[in-house]
Every structure is written in structure tokens, then in C-alpha cells.
Amino acid sequence: TKGVPLFQEQAMRIAMEAARFDDAEVNALRQALATFRRRGTIHLLEEKMISRMVARGYEKQFAERCFNQIKGFGEYGFPESHAASFAHLVYVSSWLKWHYPAAFCAAILNAHPMGFYAPAQMVRDAREHGVEVCPVDVNFSDWDATLETGRTADQPAVRLGLRQVDGLRRDEADKIVAAREIMATTMISGGAREAAQGVHEGVREGAPERGLAFRTIEELVHATQMPRTRLVSYTMPEAPPGPVSRATIERLAAADAFRSMGRDRRAALWDARGLAPPQELPLFSWAEASAVGPEEDVALPQMALAEHVVNDYQTLRLSLKAHPVSFLRPRLMKQRAVSCADIRQLQNGRRVTVVGAVLIRQRPGTAKGVVFMTIEDETGVANVVVWSKTMERYRKVIMTARLIEVRGVIQRHEDIIHVISAHLVDRNDWLAELSEMDDAMPVPIAHADEVRRPEPGSARAPDHPRWAGHPRNERILPKSRDFH
What is the DSSP annotation of 273-287? Predict the structure, then answer.
């Protein structure tokens, strides 16, 4: 380590060789280094070590420098065994990510919550490195993220798991996976398939030819309540009895998980609301029941891409369709805001304005109040440095904004690039506009259908329970990961 004591063992060796510390004194020094910032016990050994080194012929100034190196070790040092094990983990992880990027991405997603980055950033990084990522789908997704045949033969694709759907229970997902495996078995075994169709007429003949276990939401619901004993040739995974609940179907529809059936988010939600109740309704609950019987096809207005992306982040905490900031790019270009990718091409000292979603906030204890932020747009990420004085001035913006505008100066040294912030603006209000960016809507909403100023206490008042917003609607982007 070129004479710098980085490891605990090196600091102990200096004391043993230069000042002839015995085992008890070395152990006391080790404990003092581990706790000196809290209790300040390191000074008790300073005079002992310096005096012994001087007595053995070392210059006092040199002895003080040696002890200051040992004392500084407590700020960043750690045992060599920890360093070796961490280096081994880094090497193995890097090897896996390089040779098996799809498997690495799936494994990291299945290990969440953990680590430094959210699933959205892990998926973005995988796609930037050529990994195909497929959306959550009831006909293909297991609970965990899995690998499947991709578009290219040299690398598999990652299929996002049902665990990615916000609020979806594991036992409900197990019902869907178990029913899907049963339906896959019926496609192979004709007799078992006939038995299954004898139980429920909702299983249609076209499913095997299309290669899908479920062709409609009704088939999925029926399949999850089929008696398992009729399918003797199949051993069902552990899953509680009974069909999936309507709440589960609505969560999956909101997460756009029925695309393989040809139903997008809005159409699937429409179908979910039209499901017949799975059992006889109790008395007085008729008012909450949907109409039973065949319904005419309804041409629903097409949901705009921006609204799809907003709903993806609300239900999955990521989107494979687009990045939210991409819809704001025309506005940002008018304000001469640069993208995160453009920052890499600009010179040192250049004044810039950049807007991005806040991913990470860090405020290390040794940074003297400096905050380090990582922001992201559709082109990549950028690092932002907030000095302590700027932090005091814009504390609320820095700590609460999910979409932030940063004006500052580029500071770069070789490949290390930061934006030194001078002015920060909370742009959360722009996120709220994304769901209203509906220029392609074929059926415009009439102004007469809008209630801008409801009467206080009326049924359409915003504080009325019936019209209160779902907590998910307040979350356009997931919260950042903050480390202090």
C-alpha cells in the first residue's frame, strides 16, 4: 500500500515494530481506533507510542507522523480480511455481470430490496448493456424474475416477475402460476384437458394452438378454482385453495400484465370490473355486483404513452416503455436544459441546467455537510454536488423533490464529472402533468364533465371519501434512496 496503513493489521504492525507494543497494548490500540471518534480514547496511547519511538532513536517529528497515520486510519481503515472478501465479491460479481448479464440482472431483481440502486436502475443498466427485458405478464411471469428465450440466440431475455407488482400477495401469485402449469399440462394430455373443460366451460379450445394458458381474464379466474384432484398426472405447487380475488385481478390489470391476451391496461381494467362474482352474493350486496351476462364490445379511448408510463411507475416502480423525463424534453429544450448524456461532452467550468429524477442522496459524516445526489433522465445519470451553504438554502427542495432542476457549473477531472449546484428547483409539479399529456386521445373530455370547484361538503368535494385519491396516485416516481 506504498507506506500508507490502509488495513488494521498494518497499523498494529507499526506500533509493534516501532514502539515495541506488547499484545495487550496492541489490543488496546485496536479498540481505541474502532471507537476514538465517539469516546476519544486514542490520545491515551499517543504519548506512550511517541515517547517509545523517540527513546529507540526515531525523530519526534517522524514519530508524530507515524501516529497521525495510525490515527487517521480510523476514518477509513478496515481489517485486511474484510478487504480481501469484498474484493473477491466484487470480482465474482463483475465476472457474472460480464459473462451472464441477463442472469445477473434477474438475480439482483430477485434479491431486492437490497443494495444501492432500485430495480428501475438495474433494469435500465441491463438494457443499456444489450439485455432484453420482458414485461410482467400472467401467461409468462413466475413470482421471481426468470430467464427465457430471447430475440437473439446468444443471450436469454429477462422476464420480470409478479413480485414486481405493487401490493400483489405471494399466495395469490402462486395460484396463478399453479393454474398456468395445470393448463400447460392439459395442452399436452388430452384426457386431462377434457376433464378440466368438464369442470369449467370457460377453458376454450383455442388456447393450446395459441400457446397461451389463459386467453381471457375469465379463463384465468376459472382456472384458479379448478379442483386439483381431477388432474391426477400433475403435482400442483403449494397454493391456497380458491380463485384469485378481484383485487388481485385489478392490481394485475393496473400493472398492464394482460398484454399477451391482447388487453392493454385500460381494457383489462374494464374487463376486471365486469367479472361476475365468484360465489352467491349475500343479502343487500346487489348494489355492488356487476351485471352478469354477455356484454357488447366497447371502444375505449386509447391510453396515451405518457399515462402508461406514469401507471407503470405507480404499480411496478419502473417502466419498459419510456422514461418520464423523455416526455418533458421539448419543454427542457426550450429552457436550454441539457441532458445527462450531454454533460459528458461539455467542458470544465461550463454553466448548465439539467433536470432529472432523484435516485440517490448521500450525506457522509466525513463530508462536512456536503450532499451528493445522483439524478437520472432518459439518456443516463449525472452526479450533483451540493455544498453545505447551498444545502442550508435549498434544504426543503433537496430533501423532498423527486424531479429536480439543477443549475450549476460542470467540474470534471478526466472521467470524473460533477455538476456543482448553485440553484435548485422542485419540479414535482411537472410529474403531475404527465398523466394529462394526452394529445393523441381520440375522444376528448368535455369541459362539462369536469368539476373544477365543487361545493364544500358535496359528494364531489376532493376531501369526500368517495372521491379521495388512492395513495398510489401521489407517487409518480419512487422515493430516492437516501444515505446519511
Answer: HTPPPSSPPPTT-GG
